[in-house]
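Hi everyone, sorry if this is the wrong subforum. Our group has a chain we'd like a structural model of before ordering constructs, and none of us has done structure prediction before. Sequence below.
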Amino acid sequence: MNVTFGFPAALWVLALLPVIVLLYMLRARRVDQEVSSVLLWRRARQDLAAQRPVRRLERNILLLLQLLAVALAAIALARPQVPVAGGGRATVLVLDTSASMQATDVAPSRFAAAVAAARDAASRAAGPVMLIEAGSQPRVAVPFARADAVGSALAALRPTDGPARLQQAIALALGQRTGAGVPRVLVFTDRAGPAFPDVLYHVLGASAANVAVAAVHTEAGAGRTHVLIRLRRFAGTAGIVPLELRLGGRVVLQRSVLLPADGSAVVSATVDGSGVLEARVRVRDALELDNTAAAVVGGPLARVLILGAPDRALAEALAVMPVKVAAAEQATSEQLAAADLVVLDRMPPVALPPGNFLLIGTLPTNLPVSADGTVRRPSVLRTAASHPVMRYVDLSGLQILQSANLQVRGGEILAEGEVPLIWAYDGNGIRVALTGFTLDQSDFALQVAFPIFLQNAVSWLVGTDAVLTAGSPLIVPAGEQTSAILDGPGGQATLQAAGGRFVVPSLDRAGVYTLRTGTRIRTFAVVPPPEESDLAPIVASPGAIPGAAPSDARRVADLWPVLTAGLLLILVVEWILWLRGLPRTRGAAVPVRR
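Answer:
Right subforum, don't worry. Here is the predicted structure as tokens:
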């Protein structure tokens, strides 16, 4: 039997065995005798102790039990283990499916090499194997099964164009349990994370050199679109990069751009027309995916309906935005249904139908918000900078004469001071951005933040931005529509409305998408995450082990619980025997040991 010890240093306790025997030999043994007086025995006892300080070793059951107890205690502390036949430790394979795994600096690609290494690890596993796909939404691709089932699933996996939520995937793996206890986790990635117990990283990647179209930003003007293109070089050496810009398949710009080593450059252009704008660098590098980025220009304008008293500042701010604005004091249900966004400015409390609304000093009666009077001169103390409506919006200098004392029971507070000042809600087919104050009761319209806030609010309320990052969810208000059709690089899909919204958990492919909801058609672009263009493999983290994953170890069983139980039994037996050997007092005689 192949016995291993988890803490072999504890075996030094066995050195106490000869010490116990020696102490037993030094201890003088006496036999009880009953005598009338000990006067004549004192000198004899002294002579006997001087002549025989060490007695010979005799058979003694208590001595044997003590030696056995110490031996069992020492071996139990050493944590002995033996292999158990009939099964091995469970293994969880975590496979990184992010965009950077498409890099070809490892032949044929990082992802293909990771799949081969994972298949080899699965074939050598002695116990059950689970496969987790670490994409933008980690998921269990195969629950604990035989290695051949995992091999089939590995062949079907493909890398995405989005990021990898690697830490969430590892947490999911460590949360699994089998009869063999905590499984061993093998992570196949190009970016190792922090070290965890029972987690081993197989890190791939040989080069960080890469050129990418980092961003394409468009700004619509009077019949023309201004375009900013940012190029980035990761590692490598400085050089000329050919850039080509196409609009609707037509070449509108060709330029050679000098890119510094590990640096970036920005190219500007102005284009006429509408359609899909595509920027491409003509280079051969390890990652082809990020050599192209797209944007959509000149699409159909969002239809904005303003209801309420006329407000010049609001009308002028919306007039310079790429939206189609109409104003009215009252509106029919048909007008409300046809508008992409309805702005209610200083209107009486109203029950909102499904749709998108910007409420300025107006309270809805069917949403979790109400007002309890007003507040004089509130200050903005906090803002939700991460919310799309508040992106780049600085309200530090905002002066408000009076605001409603909002009582919020749901949704999200975007700005608050003594009371909530700006509030957002998304649910049941209704998407709302609300300000508790009006423009005429504040200097908001005079602030630089106002047009930025208005642009953000329109973009969020109408539905989608013109450009999304791969791996991001798609969430579009459904209004009165129950289904929609999404066309994209992966084909066509039919979406069903849930909670008043159309939701795609993750857009994992870069490219151009078209969403059809009723008579409304939205076209938007999805681009790879900029961080995926940095191909430098991360192997310096503790626990990151480049190279092949080690073979699985056989499942083992701990023997210390059995040894501990035996030790307790021996101690009980010794205690019973010791009690039976205690002397009993009889009459007035004096017991003497000699």
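For your construct planning: The radius of gyration is 39 Å. The longest strand covers residues 210-220.
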